[in-house]
Design brief:
Elements (H helix, E strand, L loop, with lengths): L13 E5 L4 H12 L3 E6 L18 E4 L5 H10 L4 E4 L6 H6 L1 H21 L6 E5 L24 H20 L3 E6 L1 E3 L9 H11 L4 E2 L6 E2 L1 E3 H14 L9 E4 L5 E2 H11 L8 E2 L15 H7 L7 H16 L16
Helix pairs in contact: 1-7, 2-4, 4-5, 6-8, 6-10
């Protein structure tokens, strides 16, 4: 299948993953472990996004407890564990949290990024490839769609601005210091292990499985890209492999299914997949600091990386529902959740 990074590449790699206990991070660790990499995970607050009961394969080989904002911890982790690959996935990922607390979001997303990259600058002979997770939100509101990588970064709201800064800082460290950095800009991730239930997919899935009417804070008309988390993992690992070619260093890549959909249409697809078309959404229309339409062109990734998504929306939703059926059916004692730093 196209776009799959091949296992032998990772067999002798030591990979430092920020946000390793989070939604995207846990899937990434699992795939890297499967491919034979040695994984070192930065985990905030001494906790895990999910209990080990869910899937022990998501556990990094080495866990470093600390925050992105703590430079000494980041430097020590990369240095002492001799990481040759850095996947900077960690961030404060929730738009609502960013609106309520821009300072903490800027601390995690902006200062955290320069900490990771400056540690890599100090260890430039050791670190061979760095992938920095930005976001489609970094583009902000644009006059034309879909976004492509040549367009300016115009994030104006707190979360969007934090990811635009993340992106620009990563470009700076490549241009000024020659660091082997590439940047990812993906649409909205979804899939199992996402316990931020204020996001549309896990929130609607939980309501559907409980037989409750979904409640939408938006008016349902906003159009977005949605991409399955397992496709995102394969995209990031494919990019990291292709970075053996120095000509790609400094580039940003969009990752998208290129099939934008409105929130209300997505909700109906989820309800259909769950067999609960009878549940009528309650539409509040209260969302603020949201851009009406955002979607990406992935032409550059197709051309330069030979990447394309492997899951259709319906197949991905089926797998997602299956995960949540198992999770929500577990005893409460086994569903302890720790707040953690993840990416989006």
């Amino acid at each position: 299948m196209s776009g799959r990074a091949q296992g032998p590449f990772w067999a002798d790699k030591r990979v430092f993953i920020t946000g390793a206990a989070g939604f995207l991070g846990s899937w990434t660790v699992k795939e890297l472990n499967r491919r034979g990499a040695t994984t070192i995970g930065l985990v905030r607050d001494g906790g895990h996004h999910l209990s080990r009961r869910d899937d022990p394969e998501t556990e990094p080989h080495f866990i470093v407890h600390g925050r992105l904002e703590d430079y000494d911890t980041v430097l020590r982790a990369i240095n002492e564990h001799e990481a040759d690959t850095v996947l900077h996935l960690g961030a404060q990922p929730i738009v609502g949290v960013a609106n309520r607390s821009p300072r903490s979001t800027f601390d995690a997303n902006i200062r955290g990024t320069w900490n990771v990259l400056d540690a890599c600058r100090e260890l430039r002979r050791q670190v061979k490839r760095i992938v920095v997770a930005s976001s489609d939100k970094a583009y902000g509101k644009a006059a034309r769609l879909p976004y492509d990588e040549s367009m300016p970064l115009n994030g104006n709201h707190p979360y969007d601005a934090s990811k635009a800064c993340t992106d620009i800082i990563a470009q700076t460290y490549h241009q000024s210091y020659g660091l082997p950095v590439c940047i990812t800009r993906a649409g909205n991730f979804f899939g199992g292990r996402d316990l931020n239930f204020n996001r549309v997919v896990p929130g609607v899935v939980r309501w559907a499985l409980r037989g409750e009417q979904p409640v939408l804070r938006s008016d349902g008309t906003m159009i977005r890209d949605y991409i399955y988390v397992r496709d995102v993992v394969l995209a990031y690992l494919t990019l990291a492999e292709r970075m053996e070619d120095p000509a790609l260093h400094g580039h940003a890549f969009n990752f998208s299914t290129e099939q934008p959909i409105s929130v209300i249409a997505l909700v109906r697809r989820i309800l259909s997949a769950a067999g609960r078309e009878d549940l009528q959404p309650i539409i509040l229309g209260e969302a603020t600091n949201e851009i009406p339409e955002q979607h990406l062109s992935a032409a550059k990734a197709r051309s330069l990386l030979d990447w394309s998504p492997e899951w259709t929306l319906d197949r991905a939703l089926e797998e997602t529902l299956e995960w949540y059926r198992g999770w929500l059916g577990a005893p409460v004692a086994c569903r302890r959740v720790e707040e953690t730093t993840t990416a989006i």
